[in-house]
Amino acid sequence: MAILFDSTSRLFTLTTAHSMYQMKADRYGVLLHTWFGMKGSAFDYSYRIAYADRGFSGNLYDAGDDRTYSLDALPLEFPAYGSGDYRAAALKVRYPDGTSACDLRYLKHEIREGKYSLPGLPALYDAPDQEQQAHETPAPAGCRCGSRSDTLIITLEDTRRMFYVHLYYGVMEDLDIITRAVCVENHSEDDIYLENIQSVCVDYLHGEYDLHTFYGRHVKERNYQRSPLMHGSQSVGSTRGTSSHQYNPFLILSDRDTTEDTGNCYGFSFLYSGDFLGNAELDQYNQTRLLLGIHPDNFCYCVKPAERFYAPEAALAYSAQGLGRLSRIFHQAYRTHLCRGKWTAKRRPVLLNDWEGVYFDFDGDKLIQMARDAADLGIELFVMDDGWFGKRDLDVSGLGDWTVNEKKLGCTLKELSDQIHGLGLQFGIWFEPEGINEDSDLYREHPDWAFTVPGKQPTRSRLQLLLDFSREDVREYIFSHICQVLDSARIEYLKWDLNRSLADLYSASLPAKRQGEVMHRYVLGLYDMLEKLTQRYPDMLIEGCSGGGGRFDAGMLYYTPQIWCSDDTDAIERLSIQYGTSFGYPVSTMGSHVSHCPNEQTRRITPLNTRATVAMSGTFGYELDVNKMTEDEKTIVKAQIREFKEYYDLIQYGDYYRLTDPDTADAYHGWEFAAEDGSEALLCIVALQIHPNGPGRWMCLKGLNADSIYTVNDEEYPGDVLMNGGLLLPTAAEEYESFRIHIVECPAV
To answer: Has this prediction a pTM greater than 0.90?
Structure first.
């Protein structure tokens, strides 16, 4: 059992393969956080707490005249507002009398085998997914699907006996992951209101830390930022209704000297697709508190008597071997224990999406011609993007009217699908179910279904409004119409898009005092829709999208095993986008495509081979008009697809190594995929700068067996030499030239 409880000291010790998490209910029933970090002896780490008279830090009444006991200075597992702890709180509750001061004490606990789940919310699971087993999909090499897990539930009670707080801990021993979730249960006779609830709080007694965050904007998401923690609070978050392009719900704390390969670091990933807040606070005693959960702005949730509220799950991981190891922990966990269904382990098809090729300007004949050329190239899936439904020749109308525009296609959807399948291709389709245009039949019939504030003109974005997915009747209508489309033809892939942020939050289905629930109920409604969709169409590959990467988070990966990484398809821009994404998310989740050239967003001209090198570090596909390609280009594309299929398991399931930072790299940027057993590796290089008569460039490899011999371009090298001395890189002959170099372990003699 990975969970130990000492009944005498009331000490909880949670252990994974390489990490340990510990807390203790002290003599007053206060739950102290005592350790999160390297695995060691199951010793009581509360010895590290320094008790002293902290002037202006209040003292617990139970402590009597002991002025050294102050919640304001102690490491707390789940700090509540108004307890005498003046740091950021994990919980704020408004009682029926209008007060908010809360005092939580240990009541009981439960230890059980297996990993808990959460009703209506995504969560890591501890066994091979049942859907995957049903399809008898074999797991490729490097894709571990089994994991031993245990659950700890600690129940705290507020001293006014109004409610319980159940703290959930999932200990996924083999994966090196500990999960956190919270449930608040109202056992009073009155409504209570949650005004703030964070899913995780970790207090560090000492240390100088850097905070790693991932900021961005539309078409430039998840830029890596590392900043030293200073006194006060540093936070990132979203109040846009989605996890957002601007900040990602994934944070890292590390020692100041931590690198890719050395040093302590701690990862915090929030499995939620709506508003979030991640906050790191360095207090007056040089203690650091890390909080992550639902953003308290626009959040106030009524919990009625006997009801429960579940806060989303957060996944925590620790690495003593630098940022690279931390990333690989999350990669493995999310590939095999977050993503679900047959596509967790089944090879996904190489696709052609028609968007950048034709936009809205197409008919059935044009699509069939694109599909015909795509099939000749070895592409396996043809995706019809926006423009196939309702009055939809521009993005200003039609959203909400999910009826096939047969006049535009010149045929039924089934006829189009049959023709594409007749070419040997699978067929996919685009939806934006959450959006609605005012110029639509649905809006004219049900204007109250869209988010609008009574008496106020709505805030438009792309001339779109958003449907109130907190309402079951709205969801049922949209779901039924999606199903009518999907049932009318053979469709193997669905792209689920969202192209604006939430605004004008008001639901006609909720009373005034409960409008603070709308944002969270919207996310729950989204999850409800996606869960029903995955259950009804278990064989369908669903790809998430929100203006590209505006909702690229672990919550969405529970329902969509890949997400459109960014609307920016420029290969060079993608280097930093995919680099930042890789810190918390595996390559297998990154929707990535070869675009036409010059690129739509940047007008940059990039070699076709380089566009493929970058796109192969994702799910891989094409997003251009193949009808306009030259014969030479088609020959190159055929070879790219064959190569990607050859390296598929290595890329999708191998260990990923960041060798350079593309924003600071000296001329060449590199990354690597290595088999878990070190038997092979794929080195990817992009030349960022070209210099005449330039110096030689070497790249040190990782993840090889030091004692083995490897073949590289028909030359043999010891593994330790390649990792320490590096590989001499080819000289780039043109701007942005790229290289893919396969390294293979020689058979033992």
So the answer is: yes
